[in-house]
Amino acid sequence: MRRTLGILVLLLGLAGCGDGEPSRGDVQTDPTPEITQVDLLTGTAAGGSVTSTATVLPDDAAVQDYAAQFRNDELGGEVVAAADDADVPDGQQLAAAVVAVGCEVPTDVEGTYDGGAVQVSATVPRSDRQCLAPITSVALMLVPDWISGAPQAGGR
Q1: What's the angle, vertex CA 40, arms to CA 125 and CA 38, rounded to 5?
Q2: Distance (Å, rounded) from C-alpha 2 to C-alpha 62?
Q3: Could you tell me the superkingdom of the organism this chain comes from (predicted)?
Q4: Which long-range contacts (CB under 8 A, 24 or more apart) does 78-86 make?
Q5: Could you list the pLDDT tens digit for every one of the 156 residues in the chain?
Q6: Angle at 32 between CA 31 and CA 34, to 5 degrees
Q7: What single string gives the DSSP state of each residue in 25-38?
C-alpha cells in the first residue's frame, strides 16, 4: 500500500509540474458559473431596450458607454456610480442588462450562463395600471471574467 501511495504522490507531483500558464488547448469548462446580482437600478423615462443577454463591462470606458444609452442622465449616473462602488473580486467582471421597461419594477432577476453568454430574465409583477412614463430597470451583476460571449459595451 505504501508503494502504491508513493507512486500516486509522484504522479500527482508530476501532473502539477509546468509553467503554470494554460496551454492553447485549455478551455474553461465550468458549466454553471456563479452570477451574482450587484444592484437593480431604475429610472423613469430613461429609454433603453430590454435584452435577454448581459453586456460585459470590463472597464470604466465600457461602463460610461453603456450608461450613455439612457435618455435619463440620472439613471446613467446611477449605473456609473454603482459600477464604481462595486467590489469586483479577482476572476470576475461586471455585466449589465436592461431587464424591464414598463410600469413595474422586477421583483426578481436571474442570470444564467447558456450558449456562451450570460442570459438574464426578470420576474415583473402583473399590473393593470397605466403609466405615463415607463420605468427602466437595469440589473448590474458579477460574472466570471472568462465569459466573453456577451456583447461588450460599444458593440450594441
Answers
A1: 135
A2: 56
A3: Bacteria
A4: 78/41, 78/43, 79/41, 79/138, 79/140, 82/38, 82/39, 82/41, 82/140, 83/57, 83/140, 86/38, 86/39, 86/140, 86/142
A5: 433 333 333 333 333 444 444 443 444 555 678 899 999 999 999 999 999 999 999 999 999 999 999 998 899 999 999 999 999 999 999 999 999 999 999 999 999 988 788 999 999 998 888 888 999 999 999 999 888 644 545 543
A6: 140
A7: T-----SS---EEE
Domain boundary assignment for the chain? 31-144
Measured from the Cβ of residue 57, the count of other Cβ atoms closer than 10 Å reads 27
Picking from 133, 150, 149, the residue whose alpha carbon sits closest to that of residue 51 is: 150
The pTM is what?
A: 0.74
How distant, in Å, are the alpha carbons of 74, 140, 153 from that of 55?
A: 20, 10, 6
Q: What does DSSP assign to residue 91?
A: T
Tell me how far apart the alpha carbons of residues 70 and 46 are, in angstroms, rounded to a whole number.
5
> Is the dihedral angle over the CA atoms 151, 57, 30, 21 positive or is it negative?
positive
Under 8 Å CB-to-CB from 104, ≥6 apart: which residues?
Answer: 124, 125, 127, 135
